[in-house]
Amino acid sequence: MESTRIVQALRQALIEEMDRDENVVLLGEDIGVFNGSYRVTEGLLDKYGEKRVKDTPISEISITGAAIGAAMTGLRPVAEIQFNDFMGCAMDQICNQAAKIRLMMGGQVSVPMVIRAPYGATGRAAQHSQSLEAWFAHIPGLKVVMPSTPYDAKGLLKMSIRDNNPVIFLEHKLLYGATSPGGKAKSVVDDLDQTFRPAPEEEYMIELGKGDVKRQGEDVTVVAVGYMVHRAVQAAKIVAEEGIECEIIDPRTIVPLDKEIILNSVKKTGRLVIVTESAGCCGFAAEVAAVAVEEGLFDLDAPVKRVCAKESPIPFAPCCEADVLPDTEKIVKAVKEICRK
Amino acid sequence: MATKVIVPSEGGDLCVISECVVAVGDRVCMGDLICSVETDKAMVDVSAPCDGVVLAILYQEGDEVKAFEPIAVIGEEGEKIEKEDTGKEEPVEEMVQIQRQASEKEKMKEEKPGDKREEVLVSPRARRYAEKHQVSLKEIVGTGIFGSITEKDVAEQAAHTEESEEKGYRVRMLSRMEQASGRHVMESLQQSAQFTLTMRVCADRLLELRTQLKENRQMPELASVTVNDLFCFAAARTLLQFPRLNAVWNGEELREYDVVNLGIAVDSGEGLVVPVVSNADRLSLYELSRRSHELAERCRAHIQSAEDLKGATFSITNLGKYGIEVFTPILNVPQTAILGIGAPVGRLVLDHGQIRETKEIMLSLTLDHRAVDGALGAAFMQALKMNVECMDILLVR
Amino acid sequence: MSSVDKSTALELYQTMLMIRRFEEKLFYLFSTRAMPGSMHQYNGEEAVAAGVCSCLNRSDYITSTHRGHGHCIAKGADVRNIMAEMFAKSTGCCKGMGGSMHIADFGVGMLGANGIVGGGLPHAVGAAWSSQYRGTQQVAVAFFGDGASNEGSFHESLNLAAVWKLPAIFVCENNLYGFSTYYRRSTPIENIADRAAAYGIPGIVVDGMDVLAVRGAAREAVERARRGGGPTLIECKTYRYMGHSRFEKPCYRTEEEVRQWKERDPIICFPEVLKEQFSVTEEELKQTEIFVEKEIEDAVRFAEQSPDPKPEDYKKYIFAE
Predict the structure, then answer these.
(1) B315: part of which helix (H) or strand (E)?
(2) If you average pLDDT over residues A160-165, what whole number do you get?
(3) Among this protein's residues, is C240 annotated catalytic?
(4) 8 Å CB contact of A298 and B127
(5) What pTM, to 2 d.p., does this model score?
(6) Which of C102, C252, C253, C264 is catalytic?
């Protein structure tokens, strides 16, 4: 059965990989008996037993560190950190240990592990709402993946599990339950279009570092990741009515970054808008802008624009949260600004 | 009391406000740049005459304004602007409008710090396209953000150019300087009564003197004195006896000057420029020559100042080096006379029954008949001829 | 100490002596600026590494600390490769990419020294989990200092290992000072081993200067771990003779204190035990000394003659294929 929702696609990826390789093990808070706080691991405890699906203490250092130790000694652990915000507790293990072990030890060992974590603002205030991809992208030695559709989620997670390096796999909360067009569950993303592609049941993988064109267009390149891909698609529909055609590029992985797909698109359009839900300062959007300027300056016909969260902790009040976050309207505004005649 | 910011140029000159760098409400200090204006002669910076707040800007970029006209008013914050300050008949409405425009501009500045840019912006992509297709960016009006020139703008210009080429012509846009110069000569021809007198002078002694100077060993610096310098020297000295030709006519009165400020036409490479050697009648030949060369150099390097181009009372133009013998110079109004110098031409003359080779130069004097009639002009030419033909004597005098 | 025979005892001595001579050589080389970087020396604590590792198989795992030379030697890594790593040579156990603070040798189950205090503990937990999962009977030992016992990773690691009943042994080398701070100024209890009670596991205090005592405690813990009895916390009371790092003013401890600890120096005291209890002869001790000296000299020569890595070598170690 094909997965129309990301949560199903991720679960399907885990099942396929656990069936394929008995060294794939899961650990994390509330992933077993409770089925995972976002239900990604639903049913897996029953299916694979306590030996392979480990409920852990609320203990991010040991979850991450144990995954590292296990990865160094033959397992392929997939750890879940309940919210990406909590990875702050485990930063030493992620950044000083997992990312560096292979190089520090002269390539004697690799650390094939995945840390899955939900990100994104959904009314949960400052400590459960961040998008922290840039933290990890800044540490050489980590790969960072941010899927936007069920299709990508499955292919990328399977690839991440098979990758011989530590992979940070970030999943947007609003996308878990969202369904592809035709799906029955009510979607939190209004007006999902055909780009929200379901994951077929058959086996397939998506290479890390290979971006995807989510929409073709001639006038402006919009690079967006994760949930923001769908906001960008909505914005593209709006500006299309005014004759501006956006090309939406979803890099899918922050590290490694598919520079080529971005630069090729900019070569075509001459204009670049980058959308992230994370704050702009020193973020992924800044990195993409730098790539465009360093390697594609003479393709640019207008200044590069970033649409990112404002420089603020995410406030609780819905109206304030909305003000901080990028949205469809803000993307429309940015696109029009650099496309204005 | 409010202080007017005046266009600093001699009377009658038209100039174009090319760049205004202040907005109403800005605080300025004495000497701060207010705007640049472009005359047919040069770009001139207009500076604040005193400290204060800009109360009004009376023109917009691209407007034409006459010399001595106020272009802005500086005063204390909240001060009322008197009608006389603006020199405009319809001050109230327009002033309000201008102020509003200015304050809107100011607001935009606040909203988007990068939005108001003075220079022409070209996107990197457009620049590459222009280089590849050899399209000049000079005259393109940008449609991109901040008014920047985009690839599309360049492509359209290229298509336009290509289209005209297909039809057998090419479109060349004139620079502002060329446009201003064009207006100036049109005005000259339309608004004055020009006629030209020509006279042949024997240049043998003058050319011999020039050769001597060139070859002398005692003062090598004199070697640079040119034929044109010698004519300038002769004209300046001759003019002292003909004040009507060393004058400006403003339509009502003729102002005859006590000194000769000699305008000398120079081809700057980007159009005609006429720098001015002040007090030319009081300079030695060497001083005049050096000053005139220095000015010409500055013009050719496009670094002449407004001061260099100011205050001519008589002009000289020389097409001799192009082989032109006779021509009709156009008056540099409001001056009343301009002298054209032709190329030396060899002739055989009968001298006391002997055939002798001699070098002659034709002089062409254009006059404004309102100020100088033919007889007076002819008298000047005779006197000048005498001085040129006896150059050595003139130098001794 | 009935479980220790003569050859084992002599091996323990040789390991300790190897560590001591290695550290002394390093100190000389650093002092003469023949070697780059920085280092933390193990002199004085040899009995802990030697005693614990003598109970381990080659396939068992250890994780180590910033003061890791001793653990690496005791676990059986080739001294030549360790020395070459100190010299940042391409023949180093980490190809010159890690240096003193990151020495590791996966061939002998040494999963790495660690520049972050407490950083290695959870790795040992993970290795123990992996061994439990794969059913291989391997155990994992985490070496760490008194300072690390106040890090969150210590508590999280003991807790997880205890709750999952993992074959892990936590060996605290209490050398009394976390850098300059006396452990009783940072730790409210006399025995760090008492913290084991909080996780429901055995906590044992041993004399870290007595290699046989250390070995005895470790042996028991290893056996318990192998038979599925879960983790043990062993606290070894020991002392480092050198500064925390290379050269620092010893303003935080007295010369008298250092002298007193040195009186119980295992390198000096253990030969007496060897002679009395294991009938080791002077000649055998001398032969050991000669062997160790030769190994160290050989290692230095090997390191000095080894090529540097190429400037771009690091690139192949950032990511695995």
Answers:
(1) strand B314-318
(2) 98
(3) yes
(4) yes
(5) 0.71
(6) C252
